[in-house]
Design a protein that fits this description.
alpha+beta; 7-stranded mixed beta sheet; 4-stranded mixed beta sheet; 10 helices; 38% helix; elongated
Length: 381
């Protein structure tokens, strides 16, 4: 019911009350004046209500005519009449069909703007592996940027000579040593963030940025260690026998006993399909870790192809004790500092975050790892 109709009902009630006041012989002049004033006030409200409703109806007509798309083949006057009658609550079947054809949830001007859009501001992270090569090698925290480590040079050892009674004991050769020097380099970057974004975001931005810096640290360490792994001598792998020879002969028994097999997704896929002459798969499940595999009792560690990249069609199959082969000298865990004043942040109304790492990686034992390359274009069993 329209507002004017409600006021009309109120006027009827007010007039009925006024008649009762006049009919009463005991009514005072104040009661008569109050009844009359109430009727005058309601009639004034009715005039205003009718005027407002006429203006609203005129605006609706103008809006319908202005937004009506004549290219859809609908009669604009029919649409206008149907829309106004619908507002009055007396729409016919034909008029309903006209309105349904003109209104649309897919066109913003025809009603699409009335539908709320589902917009989630929380950052959705993609499921990706961020495997760190840091866990593969030996990590030594250091307190200086530079330093050296002394290791024994691998050589042949001759036995003691037999000493007969009364004879002079001969001198023996001394061991050989060499120094391995490290020099920690600084790695870092700055991320500028507008202060308006920091203050107004609803997506837990700082939490996401902290995780982003952590991923950058892993990527940096993987680059340093991966580049060093690629300096080991590479040997083509032609069959399963090359792996057996590596474990049985090439590696020192002390290294072979603690060896692990490191490869990427491509290399693991090829190894996982290999069978020996008896038809048994080369890789066997680890009874203590069902999701992992063993190769001749050694743990197989698989890294994404983006961490350990293929050399064209050649996948890396590395076997050895990697903690003896490589040392990562870590001068300082990653530090994150911020400023909203310096480095031009004040002038641009921004906050700048800086992440820094200081580290170096060195090869300690060249013979602790054998780097095989499996050509996946012609891999054999």
């Amino acid at each position: 019911m329209k507002r004017s109709d409600l006021i009309k009902e109120e006027i009827k009630v007010a007039k009925e009350n006024a008649r009762k006041v006049l009919a009463s012989g005991s009514s005072t002049i104040e009661e008569i004046n109050a009844a009359t004033l109430n009727i005058d006030t309601l009639e004034a409200k009715l005039k205003l209500a009718i005027k407002e409703e006429e203006e609203v109806q005129a605006n609706l007509k103008g809006t319908v005519l202005e937004n009506k798309d004549v290219s859809n083949g609908l009669d604009s006057q029919a649409y206008e009449n149907a829309f106004i009658n619908a507002l009055k609550g007396c729409t016919s079947l034909d008029e309903k069909m006209t309105i349904q054809a003109a209104l649309s949830s897919t066109t913003e001007a025809d009603g699409g703007l009335l539908i709320p859009k589902d917009q989630e501001t929380q950052v959705i992270e993609l499921a990706r592996s961020y495997s760190s090569l840091r866990d593969l090698v030996y990590v030594e925290p250091v307190s200086t940027l530079t330093g050296t480590r002394v290791i024994e040079v691998d050589g042949e050892y001759t036995p003691f000579a037999e000493v007969t009674e009364g004879s002079k004991i001969s001198d023996i050769e001394n061991g050989q040593f060499k120094a391995i020097a490290y020099s920690c380099k600084t790695y870092g970057g700055i991320l500028p963030i507008p202060n308006n974004l920091l203050k107004d975001n609803k997506g837990n931005l700082l939490h996401h940025i902290n995780k982003w810096f952590a991923k950058k640290r892993v990527a940096t360490e993987n680059k340093i260690i991966g580049d060093l792994l690629n300096t080991f001598n590479k040997t083509a792998m032609t069959s399963i026998d090359d792996i057996k020879t590596t474990l049985n002969v090439t590696l020192d028994p002390a290294i072979s006993a603690n060896a692990s097999v490191v490869t990427n997704q491509t290399g693991f896929n090829e190894l996982d399909k290999m069978k020996d002459t008896d038809g048994n798969y080369l890789l066997q499940p680890d009874p203590t870790k069902p999701t992992q595999k063993l190769l001749k009792g050694r743990q197989v560690k698989v890294y994404p192809d983006k961490v350990l990249a293929n050399d064209s069609t050649k996948a890396p199959i590395m076997i050895g004790d990697f903690k003896r082969a490589i040392t990562l000298f870590d001068r300082q865990l990653m530090t994150i500092d911020s400023t909203n004043i310096g480095a031009g942040a004040f002038e641009t109304n921004a906050t700048k975050l800086r992440g820094l790492l200081r580290m170096d990686a060195k090869k300690m034992d060249e013979k602790a790892v054998v780097f095989l390359q499996l050509d996946t274009a012609g891999a054999g069993a």
